[in-house]
Specification:
Elements (H helix, E strand, L loop, with lengths): L2 E6 L7 H9 L4 E4 L8 E5 L2 E5 L12 E4 L4 E2 L1 H13 L7 E4 L3 E2 L2 H14 L11 H10 L11 H21 L8 H15 L3 E2 L1 H10 L4 E4 L23 H8 L6 E9 L2 E3 L12 H10 L11 E3 L1 E2 H11 L3 E5 L9 E10 L2 E3 L6 H6 L1 E8 L16 H14 L3 E5 L7 E3 L5
Parallel strand pairs: 1-10, 1-11, 2-5, 2-10, 5-7, 6-8, 7-9, 11-15, 14-16, 15-19
Antiparallel strand pairs: 3-4, 12-13, 16-17, 16-18, 19-20
Helix pairs in contact: 3-4, 5-6
Bound molecules: inosinic acid (IMP).
């Protein structure tokens, strides 16, 4: 079996890029299957740090073909900018393909995301304002425009005219803003079409053939389980399924190929945007986690909300995704804490529960039940051998394995590529 999946087990920003980097040099394909440029991943191109939002992180690996799959929403302006940044850095980007079935984030989607967040004011979702939700909404109301529609430009124009009829009404009447001009968009998209046309493919066919012939394919998740449209804290979620289930629908591949499903878990929790966060620390501990962990959004620069590890959250991710392995990141950030609480249960209306309730009012009433671990108070970033980790650190790691019933295959002890302890080789 040759399908590898990497997904987030918390609220995103777990450090998925790091394990993707480790794996992608051994892959034939790296595929994104959901989300869009709401994600953020820092890469170094010729010594220069760049943040990619839409391109698969595997793009830097020359061996792998990179595919933006059918379940992704593509802002073509961002896509072309990211390609240009890599090309300006001296990289050839001829190994990138885009599914004909992926939907285009249009400029009016970005505008509507911003207008709606402003309208919601104190009830806002805290989106990245990249047009993600409005684009997926149009996909499901069937007025979306797909990347493949660019192939026949007269059909693209027909779709655009149809969409603008409704979008401009909403923009004018609901938000009292300036409508979008059809001709301006047509001109912009005729340029985009020229630049993208050779990269448009039927990726499902390519990937199923590759998988059936034993090629190695990595499916790179963005966001995470708690932001899932079905299982996250709705409505404080993203508009796609960042789960292994999302791979099947979002990349159009058979589930039989997905054998290695790797969940990335940060040793503590962070969240950007609004919504429940049971183990959040609005105090000096939270501030210390943010400062040591550098917890500021790669996409929006927003300070991330910080708190202790919530194993109810991680356990749910293990179950929903069918995780075969966990990768534990940023455990070095905890080296400055004498006592480390871990949330192991939820107290709801006087009862202890071990699942995440589905409604916001229930989630808001939850109080965390903590188990306390002794810290290790020493630098662990240069350790490469599990047995050399301080005993208290090993206890923390083993408790996570025990609680989630999922093995931890890699422990990341620092930001650099080499700062890893491999406990079970994934590949
Ligand atoms: P959207 O995906 O821009 O619609 O935002 C919906 C929610 O998901 C907001 O709370 C965002 O902050 C959050 N979100 C979206 N993408 C990411 C990500 O890559 N990391 C962390 N949070 C994200």
């Amino acid at each position: 079996m040759s399908g590898y999946v990497v997904v987030g087990t918390q609220w995103g920003d777990e450090g998925k890029g790091k394990i993707v980097d480790v794996l992608s040099s051994k892959m034939d394909y790296v595929v994104r299957f959901q989300g869009g440029n709401n994600a953020g991943h820092t890469v170094v191109v010729n010594g220069k740090k760049t943040i990619l939002h839409l391109l698969p992180s595997g793009i830097l690996s020359k061996n792998a073909l990179c595919i933006i799959g059918p379940g992704v929403v593509v802002d073509p302006f961002v896509l072309l900018d990211e390609i240009k940044v890599l090309e300006d850095g001296g990289m050839k980007v001829d190994h990138l393909y885009i599914s004909d079935r992926a939907h285009l984030i249009m400029p009016y989607h970005v505008k509507l995301d911003e207008l709606e967040e402003n309208r919601l004011a104190k009830n806002k979702i805290g989106t990245t304002k990249r047009g993600i939700g409005p684009c997926y909404a149009d996909k499901y109301t069937r007025i979306g425009i797909r990347v493949g529609d660019l192939k026949d430009f007269s059909y693209f124009k027909e779709r655009l005219e149809n969409a603008l009829l409704i979008k401009n009404e909403i923009i004018k009447k609901v938000y009292n803003e300036k409508p979008f001009d059809f001709d301006t968009l047509v001109n912009e998209f005729s340029v985009i079409r020229e630049k993208l046309i050779d990269r448009i493919v039927d990726s499902g066919d390519i990937l199923n053939k590759a998988l059936s012939s034993g090629k190695k394919v990595l499916f790179e998740g963005a966001q995470a389980n708690m932001l899932d449209i079905n299982y996250g804290t709705y409505p404080y979620v993203t508009s796609s399924s960042p789960t292994s289930g999302g791979v099947i629908t979002g990349a159009g591949v058979s589930p039989k190929y997905l054998e290695n499903i790797i969940g990335v878990v940060k040793a503590y929790s962070t969240r950007v945007g609004e919504g429940p966060f049971v183990s959040e620390q609005l105090n000096a501990d939270g501030d210390l986690l943010r400062e040591i962990g550098g917890e500021y959004g790669a996409t929006t620069g927003r300070p991330r909300r910080c708190g202790w590890l919530d194993l109810i959250v991680v356990k749910q991710a293990c179950e929903i995704n069918g995780l075969t392995d966990l990768v534990l990141t940023k455990i070095d950030v905890l080296s400055s804490f004498e006592k480390i609480p871990v949330c192991v249960g939820y107290e709801l209306d006087g009862k202890v529960i071990d699942y995440i309730p589905s409604t916001i009012p229930e989630c808001s009433r939850i109080k965390p039940v903590y188990q306390y671990f002794d810290g290790w108070m020493e630098d662990i970033s240069n350790i490469r051998d599990y047995a050399k980790l301080p005993l208290n650190c090993q206890k923390y790691i083993e408790f996570i394995e025990e609680f989630t019933k999922t093995r931890i295959s890699l422990v990341s002890v620092g930001p650099d590529r080499e700062n890893n302890i491999i406990t079970h080789p994934i590949i």
